[in-house]
Specification:
It is built from 11 helices and 13 strands. By secondary structure, the protein is α/β, with parallel strands linked by helices. The strands form 3 sheets. A 9-stranded mixed beta sheet has the order 5-4-1-6-11-8-12-10-9, with helices on both faces. Strands 2-3 form a two-stranded antiparallel sheet. β2 and β3 form a beta hairpin.
Amino acid sequence: MKKTLTKAVFPVAGLGTRFLPATKANPKEMLPIVDKPLIQYAVEEAIQAGITELIFVTSSSKRAIEDHFDSNFELEATLTERGQGKLLEIVRNILPEGVSCAYVRQKSPQGLGHAVWCAKPLVMNEPFAVLLADDLIDGGKKSCLKQMVEQFNEHQTSIIAVQNIEPHETVKYGIVDVEHPHQGLMPLKNIIEKPKLKLAPSLLGVVGRYILTPRLFGFLEATLASSSGEIQLTDAIAKLLVAEPVLAYQFHGQRYDCGSKLGYLEATVAYALKHPELSREFKEKLEAVFA
């Protein structure tokens, strides 16, 4: 019987050191792109793909994320009193009816693989998605994860999102070795975490969207910490693909690396230029600046 994907894991326990001091007291996932925080874009992408159970792997400093997806009676009452119905609707619809949130703590920073493993009690024996909020992906009418869910519904196996990268960027990504490298959906032969260019099997880098089968958890548990002390998700996927097929998927859309300051600024400009209320005036401001 075919499995249906209903659960998504959001690893949000990182320290956000690249954005200090902005992230000293504020989670990096709560940094805004125009008028919505990064984590909300990731959640909306998951919901569009049919996800109904959101699992956040957090740390003690990430209470703002929990508060964002919870109701705020005082704020809603104030907006009601002021007759600000449009804003009230926006606040109340951050999380639609029928979508639930659960939170689990990652007690120490031991890498992405460990963060995903922390979600095991909530995922249980079901396939699940993993979304990294740092990767903001504009898929247009069909989000990146929705594209991947359609592929999962057909193939019923793990799928990781990949994109072409520049040669000097191999040391920043998990790099895949695939069969039929010029096709959109490609069987995975190997995956290597952040290799030097001369050791990279391709220029296809993994980005922050995954659909994984629960069998992965067994390989995460058996994966030893690397020399950096972190458990890499990449290492567990490399072992998983020996046991069952794993597919690499070249998605359609524009990805912004909001884990970097430059990528964050690029995303802010791009989303401001298509914002229904701001686009025209913002474009005029930019043109004036660069005139």
